[in-house]
Amino acid sequence: MLYVAPLWPAGHLSRKGGDHSFLCRIRTITVLAKRTACLISPLAGEMAGRPEGGAKERSPMSLFAGLLAFILLALAILPAHAQSVEDLVRQLPDGSFSDRGRVVQALAATGDARIAPLLESLAAGDLNVIEETGRIVTTSGRGDTVTATDALTGEEIGEVASAGVERIRVNNSLRRAVRTAVGQLTLMSPDAGTRMSAARAMFQAANPDNVELLDEAIAQEENPAVLQIMQEARAVAILRSDAEPAAFAEAVDVIVARGDRQALGILQAALSSADADVTPTIDAGISAIQRHLQLLDVGQNVWYGISLGAVLLLAAIGLAITFGVMGVINMAHGEMVMLGAYTTFVVQNMIRASFPELFAWSLAFALPAAFLVTGLIGIAIERGVIRWLYGRPLETLLATWGLSLIIQQAVRTTFGASNREVSNPFWMSGTFDFYGIAITWNRFWIVIFALVVFAGLLFVLKRTSLGLQMRAVTQNRRMASSMGIRTPWVDAMTFGLGSGIAGLAGVALSQIDNVSPNLGQGYIIDSFMVVVFGGVGNLWGTLVGAMTLGVLNKFLEPYAGAVLAKIFILVFIILFIQKRPRGLFALKGRAVDA
Amino acid sequence: MITAFFYRALGAKLYWVVGLLLAAAILIPASNLLLPVGHTLRVPNYAVALMGKYLTYAMLALALDLVWGYVGILSLGHGAFFALGGYAMGMYLMRQIGSRGVYGNPDLPDFMVFLNWQELPWYWWGFDNFWFAMMMVMVVPGLLAFAFGWFAFRSRVTGVYLSIITQAMTFALMLAFFRNDMGFGGNNGLTDFREILGFSVQAPATRAGLFAATCVALAVSFVVCSAITKSKLGKIMISVRDAESRTRFIGYRPEYVKLFAFVVSAIIAGIAGALYVPQVGIINPGEFAPANSIEVVVWTAIGGRGTLVGPIIGAILVNYAKTWFTAAYPELWLFALGGLFVAVTLFLPKGIVGTIGDYFAGRRERKLVEASDTPPPDLPVMRPQNAESYRGETRPQPAE
């Protein structure tokens, strides 16, 4: 009973519910019977009782028929494989590599659950034989004596002299045999994850001999994802055999449907050894995959571009507001981003110390905190410095540059010059697959976040009274002032809003970039480029500018390399400014001269 | 005519500056070389090199002042011209190493051997000759400035936009020079120089000679800038700075005026860079960093833009402060520099020299008024539009 228990997965039976046909059930049992036949001979009687316990809800009739088939099959196979698992394992060290390969296959055919780990340690070269007793063990430790463990039963044997232990040697063909054998063992495991990895292993090391095994596995597989991999593995196996053209073409179709680089490699390998009559099929398949891959490349680049564009948008959008409304070049904008990132760090530390259970939502606390901190600092800067410099944009630029140096150094003194660790919450780590394009979750959320911030800002500008006043001041400051708008107040609020949004950007960037005092420096020139390219005083210009530059950059990168791509972008912007000195979406009317 | 051009530049201020510089060019090397080590009046070797470096910075600030103080072009990329001049000089110095490099290759500089280059790229040809290298020191920054200015000024890119694209220019050049494939030594730049014109770069006498050459170059640049600003062209430059549109309507072509000033300024910056490299012993892409160019702006602003003496004083003062701070309180230097930026723009918009000049001018005026018995005629005061009276609520918009 012990031997069979893991082999007779309740899952297999229960997965096939009572509504399945009798034949189907027989097939299930047959498959299992084939694999278990050799070890049930001493236990046949005990074994016969097993289905009773395992499938109580079955009708007595079908149970009886199943049992009959089971026993018959077992009897039929018994003489051919009358060796026990122990005997087979003891044969592992002996004979040529190809003999041992057959032993491995036989071991796999037993279907014993202990075989898979044993074979894996064989492949890893961890399996040893004790020369006196012929016992197969795994050893640990070094020196004159090592600790040995029975490889099959897992029983502790204790210290043995290392001179009396010999490692079982493996070569590549044996390793391959082992890998296939393990694949067979696991292909019908009740655990979908195990089956999946087994199917993947089969796909990697496809062997024409596995086709039958895969057919069996496919017949009972119900999980669609696993089924697909199995079918692909089967197709690869067929491509490597000399099947008839029809089956071959079918297999090519399956591989083409997979459509990645691996599939391309498989088809190209198949092409070299294929007969003349199937060559056109494979050729067509290869070009189909290449088309698909090109499309995927474009898609992937577009995504990278959008993701970069979203980062640029976040960094630039606050700048666009202050630049657009106030005509102020805020060189300390990058430092506001950096302060936002550091606020995230501080908030995460506080939460970790006081409310560890809320840690997954630390960013939700960091966002308002960062907005407030940087917004207030922004208002302070406006009231303290910039207000005195209106009408002298170049000097504002210098003063804010000075402020940026001070802020940087202050952060360096407070937090140290090295990178601070900001952790990703669980819902921001990992990757997901979107029609073959790999998308990391943090990039995905940042794109969403950038768009949300953009929409929020648009709402503030178009639907609130502050936004109305800001737009009025942008268009005609003196007229707005004459109409009773308190322009200094609007300036302060605008600067606070722009800085606050930089802080929000900092929270987002802390998730994908190093949080160090130099964080902002890396973004300031890029954000300027976006604002200048997109045009001042127009949020849509910033959006279009950021996305264009992001996508352009990522499309140039494969051809020119990252640095050269960036240089091209800069030169492009310099030339673009000559053509449209006020950017893509220039503000029209009198405001232009202001 | 040329004599007249320079004759106009003459004045008390010019005599003072040139006299001081020439005195320094003679006295400091003399004291360094002739007096025995340990003598109280002897200028130590490191100080000669340090002062030489300051003076090249002063030249760079002077070049920036010519375009910012007199034409109103705030270039945030002047470091690029400086670095290009430096690279041209560095290339000459690299060729002088010859076969004495680590790899002993007579044809290729070390870093090219290291990168498995087979032959000298075409743009390194000719740099074995001193005269060619010196030509390039002026031609390369000049050409870049000409091309850049030609496009920018004709398209009437002004103010903040111009500042940002000059910054983009130096940033792009920095990225480009960081690449190994460019053939300029990549990250490490050019260094390990041995000889200049056959004299060892390390020798105190060569150092002293370079210092004297820097003094002379600065004096010559000062005279040239002074002559330009005092000429008729100089007047037009100032009018472009203060009211570009009005100048254009009168019939001048502001873009050519700007272009001229920009190119001259780039050439002066290039020469400064060329003098900088042998005294410091290295040139690397870090010199292109946008932050460096902005720092030059603050030297000029502190000294006083729109005065030619100001940037020289500003560059020397700020760099001396930097040397002192980074030795004494390294972590405070950025606070000090940042504070200087803010304080100067808020409280000293005309810089040190400009403020002092205003004070003296005001005193002269008061004296004149006191001297004359009749009170000044009570004429209605014509104030330019957009001036002080609008401060606060609305923003005056002078052409920058």
Explain what you see.
- In chain A, 43% of the residues are buried.
- In chain A, strand 6 (431-434) and strand 7 (437-440) form a beta hairpin.
- Chain A contains 24 helices and seven strands.
- Chain A has helices spanning 10-15, 22-40, 44-54, 60-77, 85-91, 97-110, 115-124, 172-187, 192-204, 211-220, 224-239, 245-258, 261-273, 279-326, 333-354, 362-384, 393-415, 441-463, 465-475, 477-482, 487-509, 521-534, 539-560, 562-579, and strands at 127-130, 136-140, 145-150, 156-161, 165-167, 431-434, 437-440.
- The radius of gyration of chain A is 35 Å and the shape is elongated.
- Chain A is mainly alpha-helical and 594 residues long.
- By secondary structure, chain B is mainly alpha-helical.
- Chain B is built from 15 helices and four strands.
- Chain B has a two-stranded antiparallel ribbon with strand order 1-4.
- Chain B is globular.
- The chains are: A mainly alpha (594), B mainly alpha (400).
SS field, number of helical segments of chain B: 15
- Judged by helices, strands and strand pairing, the structural class of chain B is mainly alpha
CATH architecture of the largest domain in chain A: Orthogonal Bundle
SSE string of chain B, helix = H, strand = E? HHHHHHHEEEHHHHEHHHH
Mind telling me the C-alpha Rg of chain A?
Answer: 35 Å
Q: How many strand units of chain A?
A: 7
**Percent helix range of chain A:** 55-70%
Amount of helix of chain B: 55-70%
Distance between the termini of chain A: 91 Å
Q: Could you tell me the number of beta strands of chain B? A: 4
How is the biggest beta sheet of chain B arranged?
Answer: 2 strands, antiparallel
Determine the number of helices of chain A (DSSP H or I, runs of at least 4 residues). Answer: 24
Look at the structure and give the mean pLDDT of chain A: 78
CA distance, first residue to last residue of chain B: 32 Å
When the domains of chain A are counted, the total is: 4
User: In percent terms, what proportion of residues of chain B is strand?
Assistant: under 5%
Spatial extent as radius of gyration of chain B = 23 Å
- Examine the coordinates and then state which fold CATH places here, giving the name of the CATH topology of the largest domain in chain A: ABC transporter involved in vitamin B12 uptake, BtuC
Q: Which oligomeric state applies?
A: heterodimer
State mean pLDDT of chain B (0 to 100 scale).
87
Query: Number of folding domains of chain B?
Result: 1
